[in-house]
């Protein structure tokens, strides 16, 4: 009797194990992850789409160009696409983890498209009122005085209005400009304008992507009431040294980017300066008959370096430094006594970000960032008085 019971127990366990293994084999999952970038420069593409044509499932890349897609299947027929780039198709087989590095080529081919769809109930999404704008689209919009201005482009979007004509002020759904959170590589930027509000502090040649969030802010963006403007800098061309620049009516700019060591380390340096002071000082000096002059200029500098330690670890360091300088002087002569009054205004931002990206698993991405941000506004004045050839200075 005991032998029969033991044999039945073993038989039942064997049948259960086979059924369990059959169930597991019928529930195989495939996981595809990796990075999507520009095939020429190697710049990561933010918001690129990964889509399985057969299963009708997909994912998009995060702010670092990383994506992860898990499906219940043994193969995947994938399409990779991004605005302004040609789509790329790959078939992946085997219900395991696949890590891909996809490079998309710029350029699109327009074809006749027929769209057929059934009406579906409204689906709730965790991220609402969000608009992603690639820098290539921003550069195609006409610019004031030859300077591409990110904030002026945002003024053209629905729900966003401008203040004074020609200014870079952003009013989102009735909010004031100080209620907008402006981030550059995750670092808050205060008073993000040059020339008393007519230009933004962001150099278009150093920017990769701009995201505007007008409502439903994620918890990580706490601290503002109106909107969030999240701007990401370029990482640098990983294939060759490249430079670009421009000479405008009021400013000139120069950008250099490229690899430092193979494709492991890349950098980008971008600078910009106005020469308004060179034009205004002589004019104001002549207009005042040599009794005074005024001048104004601004400059900014962007830098970023990143290094790939492994397929799972990347480190980035980026910084921004900008300043506006307004100065002037007035001269007064009284019976041989000469008095020179000097005054000036200086304001600007300094930011820095140290970021570490780590791939914990094929489905989990971690980003750790340490940031620094400082804004200064300085007012200075002083005069120089000369009496009978004796000069006295007071600041």
Short characterization:
With 395 residues, the protein is mostly beta strands.
List keywords for this structure.
395 residues, 12% helix, 24 strands, mainly beta, disordered N terminus
> Unreliable runs, pLDDT <50, ≥5 residues?
1-26, 120-125
Kindly provide the radius of gyration, computed on alpha-carbon positions and rounded to a whole number of angstroms.
29 Å
Q: How helical, in percent, are the residues?
A: 10-25%
- Order of strands in the sheet with the most strands? 17-18-19-20-21-22-23-24
Strand content bin:
over 45%
- The ordered string of helix (H) and strand (E) elements is HEEEEEEEEHHEEEEEEEEEEEHEEEEE
Structural class of the helix and strand makeup? mainly beta
Q: How many distinct helices?
A: 4
The profile of the biggest β sheet is: 8 strands, antiparallel
Q: Which descriptor suits the 3D outline?
A: elongated
| Integer average pLDDT | 80
Q: What features would you describe in this structure?
A:
It is a single chain. This protein is mainly β and 395 residues long. Helices cover 12% and strands 50% of the residues. The chain contains four helices and 24 strands. The chain has helices at 2-26, 135-139, 150-154, 276-287, and strands at residues 30-38, 49-52, 57-60, 66-71, 75-81, 88-93, 97-104, 130-134, 160-161, 171-172, 180-184, 187-188, 193-194, 199-200, 207-213, 227-233, 242-247, 251-261, 265-274, 292-308, 313-334, 337-361, 364-387, 390-394. Strands 17-18-19-20-21-22-23-24 form an eight-stranded antiparallel sheet. A hairpin with a 4-residue loop joins strand 13 and strand 14 (199-200). The longest helix is centred in the first third of the chain and has 25 residues, at 2-26. The termini are far apart. The relative contact order is 0.10.
